[in-house]
Amino acid sequence: MDPTDHADAHRLPVRIYYEDTDFSGFVYHASYLRFMERGRTELLRALAGDQSDMHAEGAGLVFVVRKMSLDFLKPARMDDWIDVLTWSSALRGASMHLAQEVRRSEELLVRAEVVVACVKNGRAIRLPDALRRALAPPQRGEETDP
């Protein structure tokens, strides 16, 4: 998939450091989880503010990863610059479905599908309307501003 297919995706640049790699010099698989968590956090921050504010204002509202599917295609290496792209693919009652890609320039390295549940007091609750509006993926055929 061409990265321009998701012009609405949030982009987080990340430099790969020694601590992100394993003995082979490639990025350790679990490091991608951290990079993608940062990407999801920055997407939410850009659209709805800090999660800590949402937690405080929502009297305990938190987001938890319920499901994640990863496809590791190519490795990143120490000193690479990668981009973590994150966008909303679907919204359900109490969950948001996010798509993520890790790219080195135009090269796709890792692809992920993530289901994040909205939880309060240990129970799933409906996504807040303001967040739902901010995360709503563009409808097919819908015009978006350039």
Brief sketch in words of this structure:
This protein has 3 helices and 6 strands. It is of the alpha+beta class and 146 residues long. Strands 1, 2, 3, 4, 5 and 6 form a 6-stranded antiparallel sheet that branches.
Features:
single chain, alpha+beta, six-stranded antiparallel sheet, 3 helices, disordered C terminus
What does this structure look like?
It is built from three helices and six strands; from the N terminus they run E-H-H-E-E-E-E-E-H. It is α+β, with helices and mostly antiparallel strands and 146 residues long. The relative contact order is 0.22. The chain has helices at 29-48, 51-57, 129-135; strands spanning 10-15, 62-72, 81-91, 95-104, 107-120, 123-124. Strands 1, 2, 3, 4, 5 and 6 form a six-stranded antiparallel beta sheet that branches. It starts with 9 loop residues before the first strand and ends in an 11-residue tail after the last helix.
CA radius of gyration:
16 Å
| SSE succession | EHHEEEEEH
Averaged pLDDT: 87
Largest sheet: 6 strands, antiparallel
Structural class: alpha+beta
> Hey, roughly how much beta strand do the residues contain?
35-45%
Overall shape: it is globular
In DSSP terms, counting alpha (H) and pi (I) runs of 4 or more, how many helices?
A: 3
Give me the count of strands: 6
Uncertain runs are 141-146
Give the helix level as a range of percent.
Answer: 10-25%
Question: Terminal Cα separation, in Å?
Answer: 20 Å
